[in-house]
Design goal:
This is Trehalose 6-phosphate synthase. By secondary structure, the protein is an alpha/beta fold. The chain contains 18 helices and 15 strands. The strands form three sheets. The chain has a seven-stranded parallel β-sheet with strand order 5-4-1-6-7-8-9, with helices on both faces. Strands 12-11-10-13-14-15 form a six-stranded parallel β-sheet, sandwiched between helices. The longest helix is centred in the first third of the chain and has 24 residues. The structure holds 6-O-phosphono-beta-D-fructofuranose (F6P).
């Protein structure tokens, strides 16, 4: 693992990812509405002059924008055939690779690698090839190309063949599966994925644990990592942005509304996630129910604020999971709720301002994923918390490596232990909670997004 390198002079930088920095919605009147996203890559690239972001057109709005030639400077959207994209994104990336790296399969029905899987795999290859060809076409001599995530695992190898002059990096935003689990994949597919990433000069991960798992797979399946260097860059929270944004008027308004909903004087246990199976929202609700059941002194005195933003709703398993989250929350409210107290406040809708309001109000943050590459919510809450917030954190989140010593740590499967951790967090002395929050916030901002990106770029150019 490399030490952080010094800054380097700028040259052309290309980034490739499935989801790009902008998306378009097609209005009924034919208008196109652009929505710009945030995140580590957007912030990192802002420091670069000569840049291009290659991404996929994801919906009707994006596709229409490509057809009309509408776009942002520095962004090239690839209009890949919609069926090919659906197979690659929903079929392979999100239903197979995501499940392998997050260890989400449940026997006896899954996984099944059959002819349908092979058909989808051909789409995944075609989708990766479209990216490799676009990058090969756009990149200047010796440019740096940073390829993102499990969607594009084959791109580094394909691009290396087309353009041996380029400096190619690959970054995994997810965990990496331990070798025994990774071996669920058909042997040729496992090898192809590893060779794909090893086409990069440098493969990087969010934590040492995921990097070690990747090295373990390469060593045991291929006999080594070849000439590819392995790096670790733990993305941190963007403190300046968050602190500014969390004090804008719309967040204040939502705080007032939320306070009214939770009721005066009540403690809050806050969680904010996508409706994502790996986030373990249902077991979090079970733990909260166990708390109310086993420690009735908390009834009427605490509210579980759960914000779950719809994600990957094209997949039945995600729709079912979202329905299960709603069902369990409703059941808790029906069993324990009283005239003036709703035990769970659940919102299944994307609203960043409301999330920030909840961050500021939280007494306890519940972050209990089954597995998670990093989990930025665990880092963001201590940074914007108004009065200090105790963090209940899964030991399977990447953030655990950096925040574990000041969190109340849980095994995400252990509902009883999570209930006990919630009680411990709720009863933590105020001065201890404040001191821990301060240390958590300091650890959370250690590698802000722009630095995270520039460090990767410098290491790629230097190695
Ligand atoms: O964790 C991997 C990741 O690609 C994140 O970078 C991103 O926030 C998340 O998955 C969202 O996935 P999708 O693009 O499928 O909504």
């Amino acid at each position: 693992y490399e030490a952080q390198p010094p800054a380097q002079p700028s040259a052309q930088v290309l980034v490739a990812s499935n989801r790009g920095p902008v998306s378009y919605t097609l209005g009924t009147d034919g208008s196109l509405d652009a929505k710009r996203g945030g995140g580590g890559l957007v912030s990192g690239l802002s420091a670069i002059d000569d840049k291009l972001w290659v991404c996929a057109a994801l919906g009707d709005g994006d596709r229409e924008a490509v057809r009309r030639g509408v776009g942002e400077p520095g962004v090239r959207m690839l209009d890949i055939d919609a069926d090919v994209h659906a197979d690659a994104y929903n079929g392979i990336a999100n239903s197979v690779l995501w499940f392998v790296h997050h260890m989400l399969y449940q026997t006896p029905l899954e996984p099944v690698f059959d002819a349908e899987f092979r058909r989808q795999w051909a789409s995944y290859e075609a989708y990766n090839r479209a990216f490799a060809e676009a990058l090969a076409e756009e990149a200047g001599q010796g440019a740096a190309v940073l390829v993102q995530d499990y969607h594009l695992a084959l791109v580094p190898g394909m691009l290396r063949e087309l353009r041996p002059d380029l400096r190619i990096g690959h970054f995994s935003h997810t965990p990496w599966a331990p070798v025994d689990y990774f071996r669920l994949l058909p042997d040729d597919i496992a090898e192809q994925l590893l060779h794909g990433i090893l086409g990069a000069d440098r493969a990087a991960f969010l934590t040492r644990r995921w990097a070690d798992a990747f090295i373990g797979c390469c060593t045991q399946i291929l006999g080594g990592t070849g000439r590819t260097r392995i790096g670790v860059h733990g993305l941190g929270a963007d403190a300046d942005f968050l602190r500014r944004r969390a004090h804008e008027a719309d967040v204040d308004e939502r705080m007032a509304a939320l306070r009214e909903q939770t009721g005066p004087g009540r403690r809050t246990i806050v969680r904010v996630d996508r409706t994502e199976l790996s986030k373990n929202i249902v077991r979090g609700l079970f733990a909260y129910r166990a708390l109310l059941d086993e420690r009735p002194e908390w009834r009427e005195r605490v509210v579980h604020v759960a914000f779950a933003y719809p994600s990957r709703q094209d997949l039945a398993v995600y729709r079912d999971y979202t329905a299960e989250v709603r069902r369990v929350a409703d059941e808790i409210n029906a069993v324990y709720g009283t005239e003036g107290w709703m035990p769970v406040v659940l919102h299944v809708k994307d609203d960043f301002a409301r999330s920030l309001a909840a961050y500021r109000l939280a007494d306890v943050a519940l972050v209990n994923p089954i597995r998670d590459g990093m989990n930025l919510v665990a880092k963001e809450i201590p940074v914007v918390s108004d009065h200090g917030c105790a963090l209940v954190l899964s030991r399977e989140a990447g953030a655990y490596e950096e925040l574990g010593s000041d969190a109340v740590v849980v095994n995400p499967y252990d509902v009883s232990a999570t209930a006990a951790a919630l009680h411990e967090a709720l009863t933590m002395a105020e001065d201890e909670r404040a001191a821990r929050t301060e240390r958590l916030a300091a650890a959370a901002v250690a590698l802000p997004p722009q630095q995270w990106f520039l460090d990767q770029l410098d290491a790629l150019r230097r190695d």
